[in-house]
Amino acid sequence: MFSKQILSVLAAAGVASAASSSNICKQDTFTINSQADITDLLSCTTLTGDVVIGNQTDATLDFTGIKVIDGDLSLLNNNLVSTLKSDTTTEISGAFHLQNLTTLSTLSFGDLTSVGSINWVSLTALDVLTFTAGIKSAKSIVVSDTFLSSLDGLDVASADTININNNRRLVSYSSSLGNLTTLLNINANGLDLQVSFPELIWIANMTISNVSSFDVPSLKVVNGSMRFDSNFFTSFNAPNLTETTSGDISFVSNAELTNITIPMLTTIGGGFLIANNTAMDKVTGFPKLKTVGGAVNMRGNFTDIELPALNDVKGAFDIVSTGDISSSCSTFKKLAPSSQGGGGQIQGKYTCDSNNAEANSDTNPTSTGSSSGSSATGSSGNGNAAAGISVNSLAVLGLAGVAVIAQML
Ligand SMILES: *[C@@H]1O[C@H](CO)[C@@H](O)[C@H](O)[C@H]1NC(C)=O
Ligand SMILES: *[C@@H]1O[C@H](CO)[C@@H](O)[C@H](O)[C@H]1NC(C)=O
Ligand SMILES: *[C@@H]1O[C@H](CO)[C@@H](O)[C@H](O)[C@H]1NC(C)=O
Ligand SMILES: *[C@@H]1O[C@H](CO)[C@@H](O)[C@H](O)[C@H]1NC(C)=O
Ligand SMILES: *[C@@H]1O[C@H](CO)[C@@H](O)[C@H](O)[C@H]1NC(C)=O
Ligand SMILES: *[C@@H]1O[C@H](CO)[C@@H](O)[C@H](O)[C@H]1NC(C)=O
Ligand SMILES: *[C@@H]1O[C@H](CO)[C@@H](O)[C@H](O)[C@H]1NC(C)=O
Ligand SMILES: *[C@@H]1O[C@H](CO)[C@@H](O)[C@H](O)[C@H]1NC(C)=O
Ligand SMILES: *[C@@H]1O[C@H](CO)[C@@H](O)[C@H](O)[C@H]1NC(C)=O
Ligand SMILES: *[C@@H]1O[C@H](CO)[C@@H](O)[C@H](O)[C@H]1NC(C)=O
Predict the structure, then answer these.
(1) Does the record's keyword annotation contain Electron transport (predicted)?
(2) Helix, strand, coil percentages, rounded to 5, for the chain
(3) pLDDT value at position 364?
(4) Which has the least CB within 10 A, 12, 120, 279, 300?
């Protein structure tokens, strides 16, 4: 009420256009139910407060004229709006929150470059983004259950969280992301999704599922865990990755995967799990891997496993193959705990088993494999079961993405 009065005073005095380079209007909430409500605000260049669009509105809502929204912009549970746009807005400092919109098909913010966070969930008619300048800055990006085939226009250099799930038509996601501090989750999108982060240097946790390629040519450090489940790629290569500082590396149920190559990797802070990637018969892409902070667990159709630099495994070492790996086993046996006749480089229990037809049936073996280890159970337990994100709960995260996101808001 208060600022509406100010606005009319300004408009009446003809101040609005004169001051159009910076005219700040302040209100807790700007409620928009029609284009006319927006027109009433066009003497403002900055809206300080949250902009909330109601559920009984015109089909087109055009914010052109407003430069900055210093607050949230939200449009929820609406089946009337088909076009939401602005040709002048450069910044939304709070959340850009769009959820449960069945008719929104045009989202066009040509000048928008900076957003506090993006939460776009259940936008089932949205098939294209028109973000010509492109969003360069957002702390968190959640895009879930949309009809988008590309995320061009969302290209941040750095973020806390990026969660892209259940976008069934999404086939490409390429970003100049340089680092990410909390979690990257990509899950249950289009069946031929190609992901590329050519400039990514370090990343906290990442969980990647159902993608057909994943390129991280510059990645040096994973601060948390790196998990790949049920992807469609045939090879994974991280040429510059040297370590995961505290988390796991895991590849589970990637049916077509034949080749994992991480030539510079020396340290895995957590556990090392390779399971049920049935096309993979050789594990030979880790020539420098020296230290594993958790357990080493491998299950698969292997004939050859080589970890020539390995000399410190804090947890158990447990390898089971459907094929004959006896020659690999005799090499690894030399690293077994002294109680098992080895040199003690492996601190937990050593197991190496050939010709076991059931090798692929256990895709989360840490709980059994390492708990029989002695003093090393602490760190090996941390390995694959890291703080509750198990391989199984990842699927839930993706499928229940909408619910998870709702809790994050
Ligand atoms: C519109 O929003 C109001 C307040 O949130 C809600 O009570 C009402 O059910 C909504 N109407 C429709 C059609 O969704
Ligand atoms: C989605 O929005 C519609 C109105 O467009 C509403 O009737 C429905 O309850 C909303 N669904 C959810 C899950 O909030
Ligand atoms: C994160 O990445 C951005 C973009 O590459 C870069 O400007 C910034 O310095 C990086 N921050 C850290 C802490 O590495
Ligand atoms: C992750 O590791 C990189 C490289 O060691 C470091 O610069 C960065 O600060 C770490 N980030 C976090 C969130 O710990
Ligand atoms: C990675 O996720 C685990 C489990 O949620 C958490 O404990 C850890 O702090 C995260 N690491 C980073 C660097 O965010
Ligand atoms: C890989 O690391 C080397 C050495 O740090 C660096 O010179 C090279 O540019 C990196 N490659 C990529 C693709 O980032
Ligand atoms: C092994 O992977 C296949 C897909 O390649 C999947 O169908 C099967 O359920 C997985 N097995 C287990 C035990 O997870
Ligand atoms: C595995 O991939 C690496 C890196 O792309 C490549 O150099 C190597 O030749 C591949 N190995 C096999 C057996 O295909
Ligand atoms: C992997 O081994 C299982 C069990 O012996 C077998 O049924 C399956 O056909 C093998 N898969 C491949 C791709 O070799
Ligand atoms: C997608 O990945 C999840 C595991 O994160 C898996 O359960 C699901 O079967 C996969 N879907 C397809 C179509 O591969």
Answers:
(1) no
(2) 15, 35, 45
(3) 84
(4) 12
The model carries a pTM of 0.87
pLDDT (tens digit per residue) in 306-361? 999 999 999 999 999 999 999 999 999 999 999 999 999 999 999 999 999 999 99
Q: For the chain, how many structural domains are there in total?
A: 1
Nearest bound ligand to the CA of residue 80: 2
Residue nearest to atom 1 of ligand 6 (CA): 240
| Residue 197 is assigned to a structural domain of this protein | no
CA 53 to ligand 1 center in whole angstroms: 11
Residue 8, pLDDT above cutoff 80? no
What are 92-104's pLDDT values in tens digits? Answer: 999 999 999 999 9
- Pairing relation of β-strands 114-123 and 194-196? unpaired
Rounded to the nearest angstrom, the distance between the alpha carbon of 78 and the centre of ligand 1 is: 9
Q: What are phi and psi of 66, to 5 degrees?
A: -80, 130
Q: Is residue 223 a part of any domain in this protein?
A: yes
Q: 98 phi and psi, to 5 degrees?
A: -125, 125
To test ligand 2's pocket by mutation, which of 56, 75, 76, 77 has the most ligand atoms within 8 angstroms of CB?
A: 77
**Nearest alpha carbon to residue 117 among 162, 53, 83:** 162
Q: Whose CA is nearest to atom 12 of ligand 1?
A: 55
